[in-house]
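Write out this protein's structure.
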Amino acid sequence: MNSGTGPANAGPFLLRLGQIPETSLLQPVISLPVDSIIPDLLSALQQSNCLVLKAPAGAGKTTRVPPALLQSGLAGSGQIVMLEPRRLAARTAAARMAFEHGQKVGQQFGFRVRFEEAVSRETRVLAVTEGVLLRRLQDDPFLDDVTIVVFDEFHERRLDSDLALAMVRRVQQTVRPDLRIVVMSATLDPEPIARWLGDCPVVRSEGRLFPVRISWFSPQQRQSIPELAAVGVERVLQSAANGSESAQDGDILVFLPGVGEIHRTAQLLERLAASRNLAVLPLFGEMTSDEQDRVLGPCDRRRVILATNVAETSITIDGVTAVVDTGFAKQMLFDADSGLDRLELVPISQASADQRAGRAGRTAPGLCLRLWDEAAHRRRPAADPAELQRVDLSSAVLRLIAWGEADPQAFPWFESPPQSSLEHALRLLELLGAVEAGVATDVGQRMVRFPTAPRLARMLIEAATGGVGERACLLAAMLSERDPFLRSGPGRTTLLRQSRSDVIDRLHALEDWYAEGRGETAFGEVNRAASRTIAAAAKQLYRVLREGRGGMPDRTVGPPDELQSDEVLLRSLVAGFPDRVARRRETGGDKALMVGGRGVKLGPRSAVRTAPLFLCVDIDGAGSDAEVRQASEVLRSWLPATGLRDSSELFFHPSQKQVVAR
């Protein structure tokens, strides 16, 4: 993406659907570094069905390579699918390509992402996110209408990107030797991936980067990330006032780890923004398309853009000449406390820091202020490990088994995941009833249709069978997306409805908030951006149920009795988390023993006060008495007979002051 202020160089704010007339002239716009290597790339692809392109951010690979492939005739009559790591990247890439060729988005150049698409029968180049390509592979294992698959920004090494590449390579090697694969990256060493792709050609492109001066700032006193970011913006502005050429003009891009930090930083900058006539603008993935376009569009004031790492490689923001880097990001990690993947705060790698700094030198000499010192920088890892080394693999393994892979442990990944992670994934899938003797069961085939974790997919199937599919979709979205509650509320007594489950109580609070559209809940204020994402995710899951893609009967209207509906949801949770059942050590006590022997302790505000058995949906910390943050009552009759056994154990009774048996 390279956009400016002139009409031949328009930014994404002009690229909304229908805004560019069909009669627009073809826009060759400015030349980009990657243009010079296009002939070499096309020549190499005529001799090989795989190719690796290494080109720095801003070289133009995302928006120039797919059209060149199309115009060369290498795609034949088929479609070019380009994989992007983020929705915003897919949407803006399609928009830019369409604009440069005088078209509307959705004509020859389209996109399909979660919750949104612009595609037609004319579409020959389709930018998609990872989940979209994986679902297409499930529906069309041979990719019959696709002739070229482009993997953009592969250096991010996300699990679904690694999985999609390995699956497409499998298709190419077994039934589609005519299928071409192009892997593009800004920072990845191209040689290992080229060897894995059969010693395929590697093409390199130069970038176009102005000098960027790196400055370091390590505060003497402990400050929060938003406080540091605000100080960093002030220092950049002061540097400009003192005559620093690299900070004189242009916008400031601030990298923050998450949405919460963005909002807090914006609050801290309010007074400074008013006094300096600055436009403080947030930029993150959960924003609507229109909101993102407004940030990327023209502004009559100097912009301070507060962004997550969506701005690191996925898009180009013209006009930025200064970067403030907090040095942190949110990474997906397996959370043993919840049994699901969660975003966790981590320091960024040196490679990521270099990518961020480069954003300041795209249009003029720039400045990057890093909010840590050089010694700390040297201790940071050179690059981030691949996501498959740190996340739950059960979804990927289920997808492979449902796809027909007889032995997922022998599947030819570019980089093999840990054997222990694969074994854990298989055990979980067997426990959920998704896999039996290495083959996907009917339940497993239904589960793979849902764009969510296998635990939650299993819960959805159970709930839909019981007639509460729509509520279960909202529950699954609430458990998998960002927490909608900003802070703890005043106490459980404010709940309008109270169940036997902390999870269902949170669902009640969110349902009531949606019904009212405003106000504070018993669990605190509701984050509107998070609530929009949850609602959209729930709608998507419900659509899978309604369309039958989940293999479910169309029985999604809940029982008239809300208590019955809640009980079905409680039972459904057990189906999704059968390995997280705990038994209370003594009547009325808060300590319990989980399946597998782990000791846990109920949180003081839990609604589950007397039930002998309960589900540990979310646990805080490790050790023998980790606190259960969210519990849910379990009745013995809900548990499968094959999973129950009677046993005796010795324990120290605190009131009797002696060891007793039970």
